[in-house]
């Protein structure tokens, strides 16, 4: 279309030259004067110069347009298909083409393999199974049920197999989380992905067959984490003391949950505090890496900016695959989603009672009620003044119950999304309140009460709390059941931890005021949540705040998850990337 416009301009110029009153009707008997002949020659030369200049300018403009991958948005004929449109050749590397993130088809779909696990025996996957958590470019072709060629070797035998997959993404993001599974050789020592004779070796781990506790709570990835008060609330509630016998250690963790926490970045002193809780057996820390493609010979869109919420669904699927054969139940919560058992003293008993009512349920779904609380600390603002009793007293409930989170039986789940698995049956759902009938083998059981205490809005005792000016919500008295003896027991447990010498040394260095919370909230608000808070109708793309500016604080350094990144050779239709040897780093 641009070419046509330029030609039209050229035609106008030519017309302007020839329609001027320089076309002379000269009687044959009157010869042209030398002055008139010279004027005509000058005009011819000028006309030729103008034509050549236009051709030169047009040529250079067209050449420059061909050498860049930044395009103007040009209206095209709606009757033409993508294949009929003229595409400019693309260079290898990151592609900057924001208007076509969800439409531009590329020569290769790039795949980042988050993790791969080997199962000698699995209740749901079978013997000698491989399961992989991946992120896949989903635009080039439909990857909802894509298959992958897998080669497994053990030194003496090699087996090639086809891995089937399922996805958990949203259609507004270019990259989607996927889980692929297959059978392989016994006692595998080498795992490869193959396409058209080209192979790349992928690292894998043995799946867990023991767990610290029967209930694992998978916490979504933390980035620029600084809210240590919410962490203390969750870690002590989940680990409220109770005696476990039998296959689990004879320990006395009350509610009986073990936190598996993924970290992308975190304030250094907060990280040191978490490490102390890990040494005490309360939690397991795990790396959650930013995705990087070390080398490519084809173009790709930046994956971290084009995946839903830092690939949170991928982290939860990884956690599921890790503990699939080890845990009785697995919960997928955020750090600010806190569950107090209502009818039984432990999570194990509470969840078992729910499944006893509906034995075929694939998951139990808990709603999330919004709460606010006051961070209870005094001018010293250290861990030494933290009071769980005062924190609970400051809790206020909202009538608003948001979309919830699930607890699953791991042998009935192979992957999950942020709130539940998109691969669960979408048919009838049993609701405890309405007693809606069940007629499917695969369904999600909804719990009306209790709900998760969603403490997403912490208030500073001595701060301006500007977040409340945007996030306007009504709160009233606490509307959840929290038993007094549990609150007292948790307070005693916190005091025990405080007496640990290393914890006492860390406490004064914990952040005393919010810095990243308002920045992240603003990013999330602009990226997605504005409609939820003020009902502003806007078109949102991929829910993601990866491009938000997060400054490094001088007084509070951060710890990041890092690794050595690798890219496989050029392969079609998939080119694979992965990381090995993860470590904690203080360098950005």
TrEMBL record:
Q: How does it sit in the membrane?
A: Single-pass membrane protein
Q: Does the keyword Glycosyltransferase apply?
A: yes
* Subcellular localization(s) per the UniProt record: Membrane
Q: Name one GO molecular function term.
A: glycosyltransferase activity
Report keywords, A-Z: Glycosyltransferase, Membrane, Transferase, Transmembrane, Transmembrane helix
Q: Which GO terms describe its cellular component?
A: membrane
The UniProt similarity line reads: Belongs to the glycosyltransferase 92 family.
Protein name per its UniProtKB record: Glycosyltransferase family 92 protein
Q: Which organism is it from?
A: Caenorhabditis remanei
Source species taxonomy: Eukaryota, Metazoa, Ecdysozoa, Nematoda, Chromadorea
